[in-house]
Amino acid sequence: MNLKQISIFVLPLVIIVVLGVGTFRLWQTQYSEQLHIEQTELVNRGSVLMSRELGHIQQIVSYVGKVLEGYITPEQFESEQLWRQQVAQYFTRAHALSTYISQLRWIGPTGRELVRVNTFNDDADIVASSELQDKSNRYYFIQGMAFDNDDVLLTPIDLNIEQGAIVEPYEITIRASYKLHNTAGKELGLLVVNYNLNYLFARLRAIQSNSNSLEMINAKGQWLLSEHPELEWTHLYGDILSSFTNTFPETWAEVEKSQSLGVSRLSDSRPFTSLPSYFNEELSGQPNHYFLSIVKQDVWQNKKNQMLFFIVFAGVIGYSFLTTVGVLLWRLEVQRRQHLQQIEAEKKQLEIAHEQLKESNNNLVMLQNELVEQGKLNSLGLMVAGVGHELNTPLGGIRLSLSSLQNVIKRAAHDTKAADIDVCNDMIDLAMQNLTRATDTVAQFKRITTNQMNPEPESFNVLNMLEDTLSPLSSVLKKYPSIDTKLKVEPSLIVTSSQGVMSQVIQNLLLNALEHAFDKGQPGTITIAAKQEEDFVIEVSDNGKGIRDDMLATIWEPFVTSGRGEQHTGLGLFMVHQWVTQLLNGHIEIANHKHGVRFTITVPNAKNPT
């Protein structure tokens, strides 16, 4: 079996493997996008539900706190006992504002509970004074007393702890505190309301779909709500290995960096979406917890297995088809060799056809050259129109002067006063000046036309090239009377390069500066400076408003523009970059300086063509 026969079986296998890998990755990308859409909806729904409930909690606690400050402060009662009774009675009524309130407490400035009411369903239990506890070392008391805003402070979500032990069954709790003051502004302590969030977590758990879970972790990456309930709250028992942080360390690093909705993949390639949730943002500036949505392991694995089965099945069919085709082609090749003599007989006819095609190709080349020449003539026609426009004014002056001269000559035939002779001389001088101006304009446009039609390198005077470039733009420059154009070039500077291409580059940069560098009516200056260093360097700079930093990295790409609303296409600077790098074999740089933008073009001096 020779090499060609081996390739019949090996090459299809390589093709099938490459296509299979590409198909699997494409499926993975498209399916992940579908899952991310659903995951985004899940985390947004969870966040909205949580925000709505927490907002309701803050409203209730704020209302209760303001009632206590306004009507039930200690100085309004004859004794502390009467005050405590009144507060306890109000607490038993206030718990009806929400069926999820589990405790209401008034904690004194020292951290000692002054009044406490425990609630369960519709019952309220006033705790005896002997059973009140010291909460001065609890984090929610310390944070609440240090919170200076006249607002409700929400603590992180955790489990309710009584007498140093976690209450079972779990009572998922968030504490809302409100610092109490009397009318004189004296701190009276802290109103602390415990909310049982078991109902909220049950609603969040019910939101998850058949494909994606809705989960929740705290700011340290520890599970509060998980697809696997056995992982929830394990950190309170000292288990740090079961946390999201430890299970997916790389993904956790991405989640921590993200300040908004983020999509990613877990280490096992499962699509994953996270959304940080904030409350009391002014206290830490960091998210309080994160909502996560992860595609379920069994769903992802089943889909992967189905896709792999499909790819393998299709691969087997495809491999069989390709090898069959390969064998048939090989047999056809053998037959082709057998018919080689017959093909040789037809070779002469092919040579005749080749000659005919060659002749047709020559005709097409000639036609192409004619079309190119026609294109040049069209371009020259446009240039001639411009020249005619420029010549109107000086030729009109000549016509006026000669007309006046004729009238004076007629009068001179009858009256030979010296004044008339002087007038004749003045008119002749004016006619000569305008004639000279017209001649110079024609010569200048002739140079421009010649330069643009000849892209080959040539030696030229840089100052003359710049003046020729600016001349056709005089009508454009008149539209910007507040903008000056300055040239800083040694009159004797001679370089060797493509004059027409360089003129087009300067023209585009100048028009770009006029359009983008200045606001309407803003005065400014555009400076074109050229110098000969190791290479030829030319700079086009302005003292305008500059370019945004985020656009500098993509300024040379096509369709990048800051004037999309003004019908700009974003191709000007792209073409400039192409001309400089491809036609002039140079490079161009852009940078914001202290006043505006500077384009720096560096072009090597080309050798004159022999």
CATH superfamily of the domain at 54-199: PAS domain
Please outline the major beta sheet: 7 strands, antiparallel
Which structural class fits the helix and strand makeup? alpha+beta
CATH top level assignment of the domain at 54-199: Alpha Beta
Please state the overall shape, judged from the principal axes of the Cα atoms: flat
In the CATH hierarchy, what is the architecture of the domain at 54-199 at level 2? Answer: 2-Layer Sandwich
Task: Kindly state the number of beta strands.
Answer: 21
Low-confidence stretches: 370-378
Can you count the helices?
Answer: 16
CATH topology of the domain at 54-199: Beta-Lactamase
Strand residue percentage: 15-25%
Please state the average pLDDT score. 82
Written overview of the protein:
Among the domains are: 146 residues, PAS domain (Beta-Lactamase); 75 residues; 146 residues, Histidine kinase-like ATPase, C-terminal domain (Heat Shock Protein 90, 2-Layer Sandwich), CATH 3.30.565.10. About 1% of the residues have low confidence. A hairpin with a 4-residue loop joins β10 and β11. It starts with a helix and ends in a 7-residue tail after the last strand. The chain contains 16 helices and 21 strands.
